[in-house]
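User: Protein folding is very new to me. Would you mind checking the protein record under this note? It all follows right here:
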Amino acid sequence: MGSGASMLRAFLLLLEVCGALNVTVSPGPVVDYLEGENATLLCHVSQKRRKDSLLAVRWFFASPNSQEALMVKMTKLRVVQYYGNYSRSAFRQRLCLLEERQGALYTLSVLTLQPTDQGHYVCKVQEISKYRNKWTAWSNGSSATEMRVISLKASEDSSFEKKKESWALFEDLYIYAVLVCCVGILSVLLFTLTIIWQSVFSKRKSRARHYLVKCPQNSSGETVTSVTSLAPLEPKKGKRQKEKADVPPAVPAKAPVAATFHKPKLLKPQRKVTLECYILAWILEAHLPNEILRNYQLGA
């Protein structure tokens, strides 16, 4: 009977020892700080096995080029202890481990961050209680986060690079806008020139060239002036032929005069004699006998 009870207790003890605490570190898994700032890491603990148990909290630090090393520890009696290089006064003034909520929340503060503080921070918690007048560890738990310290020079360089990239993007957009405007202006100019050229060409094509030509006198002796309209000549090959086609025909200085035919003109005395003869003949026909008139006509 006693052996069975002892075996049961041993089994329960094994279950409790194998059980793990739920430990979480925040912020994480990666957090960035600027050089000179103060960093605060939180270690959350839950799922304790025993209500009357105590917790021992330890913080470890591992830089990229070194192994994990114990920094600071809070014992089950809430006593803070420093280890290694962190036990020196210069480091102790920059580290602070506090219990915010009993058995639930612990904070680690790193003041005035330096580039050497960059690395992984691990929080390990151990649950301890008395069993048969001996301190016994019942469960363990751990969690980690990565802290990156950005130097001021690197921050300035990164901000300068960002500004440079944004300005380069703005310059590209400005150049593209200028190019688009130039292309638009050139397109408008070409369109305007095309319209002007088409209008001028259509006017030249529809316009007729008029020339004055003096013709020789007609049969009545008058000089006739005629108007001739010539359509624009088609373009010919060769510069000389084109110039000859554009020159209007020469106008003669004086039109040739045709030979004039003079009509016979009657003298005014002859016209009066003829009229008197007609009047005399009419009087004779009216008053003289026919025989005398015949003799007169024969005699005339």
Observations:
- The radius of gyration is 66 Å.
- The mean pLDDT is 75.
- DSSP finds six helices and twelve strands in the chain.
- The longest strand covers residues 135-150.
